[in-house]
């Protein structure tokens, strides 16, 4: 990942790196060959017809930065929600997690890091092209670091085209789909007793429909959460008198950033209270 020096908030994700490839920006061209072999914190320039363009600092992207900057085919589950889901599922290393709705694999990778190399995330996606794109995203993150902990499946859980997902039972379920109540009767049997399922729903009307459906099933509504994340800006500033030639000392500017804080989704936490099948 490259961060523009004069605009530290401007970040560019470049890769996979190939000697004959380049990345074009409005500040010039970044040639892959000039990045290959460099170390984090090294500096380099984009190239223009006149010579050097903008200066950049090279970084290794965090998982949060990677899922936000990589190419997407749909809206990802943002890191703030992914972190909350992992906490709500009470995930431990070695757990087996079933995810319905792979999307861009943003949550998939967070889940894989939580279960570790001894665990497994089985993620099911009904759209073939989206599943393929998600797998490529995982492969390109730190040379496939999380890939051994993820198994990709294609199809609907209700018709079990996702492969053999029954034995052993799962330690947690995540459903990222508009109507999870249509799939819960089929995935309920895959969950261990007294363990959790989390549904990711953008609208409260969806939450209400889900809660109504759960009244007919052996599922306990544990919690409904909306996660907010607010960044603050802190920097040094100089206090000046009316006479601008005189400085009255340093001070700290402290206020929320101007980045909009928008709603993403409601997280609905359900607990399995019985081994009886949902009808």
Automatic annotation (TrEMBL):
Task: Tell me the enzyme class.
Answer: transferase
> Could you tell me what this protein is called?
tRNA (adenine(58)-N(1))-methyltransferase catalytic subunit TRM61
Q: What is its EC number?
A: 2.1.1.220
Which top-level group of life is the source organism from?
A: Eukaryota
Asked if GTP-binding is a keyword of the record, the answer is no
Q: Which SUPFAM superfamilies match?
A: S-adenosyl-L-methionine-dependent methyltransferases
Instruction: Quote a single Gene Ontology cellular component term.
Output: mitochondrion
Alphabetically list the UniProt keywords.
Answer: Methyltransferase, S-adenosyl-L-methionine, Transferase, tRNA processing
Occurrences of domain tRNA (adenine(58)-N(1))-methyltransferase catalytic subunit TRM61 C-terminal (ranges): 56-248
GO molecular function annotation: tRNA (adenine(58)-N1)-methyltransferase activity
Its GO biological process annotations read: tRNA methylation
> What species is this protein from?
Coemansia reversa (strain ATCC 12441 / NRRL 1564)
């Amino acid at each position: 990942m490259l961060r523009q020096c004069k605009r530290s908030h401007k970040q560019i994700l470049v890769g996979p790196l190939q000697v004959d490839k380049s990345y074009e920006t409005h500040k010039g061209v970044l040639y892959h060959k000039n990045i290959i072999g460099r170390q984090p914190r090294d500096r380099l320039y984009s190239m223009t017809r006149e010579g050097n363009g903008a200066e950049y600092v090279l970084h290794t992207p965090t998982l949060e930065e990677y899922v936000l900057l990589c190419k997407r085919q749909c809206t990802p589950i943002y890191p703030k929600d992914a972190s909350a889901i992992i906490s709500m599922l009470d995930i431990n290393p070695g757990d087996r997690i079933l995810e319905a709705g792979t999307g861009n694999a943003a949550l998939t990778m967070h889940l894989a890091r939580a279960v570790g190399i001894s665990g497994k995330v089985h993620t099911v996606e009904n759209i073939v092209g989206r599943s393929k794109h998600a797998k490529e995203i995982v492969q390109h993150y730190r040379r496939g670091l999380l890939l051994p902990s993820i198994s990709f499946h294609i199809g609907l859980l209700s018709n079990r085209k996702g492969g053999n997902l029954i034995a052993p039972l799962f330690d947690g379920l995540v459903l990222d789909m508009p109507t999870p109540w249509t799939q819960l009767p089929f995935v309920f049997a895959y969950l261990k007793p007294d363990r959790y399922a989390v549904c990711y729903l953008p609208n409260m009307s969806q939450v209400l429909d889900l809660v109504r459906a759960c009244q007919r099933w052996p599922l306990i509504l544990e919690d409904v959460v909306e996660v907010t994340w607010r960044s603050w800006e802190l920097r040094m500033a100089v206090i000046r008198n009316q006479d601008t030639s005189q400085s009255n000392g340093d001070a700290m500017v402290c206020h929320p950033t101007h980045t909009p804080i928008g709603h993403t989704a409601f997280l609905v936490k359900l607990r399995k209270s019985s081994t009886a099948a949902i009808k």
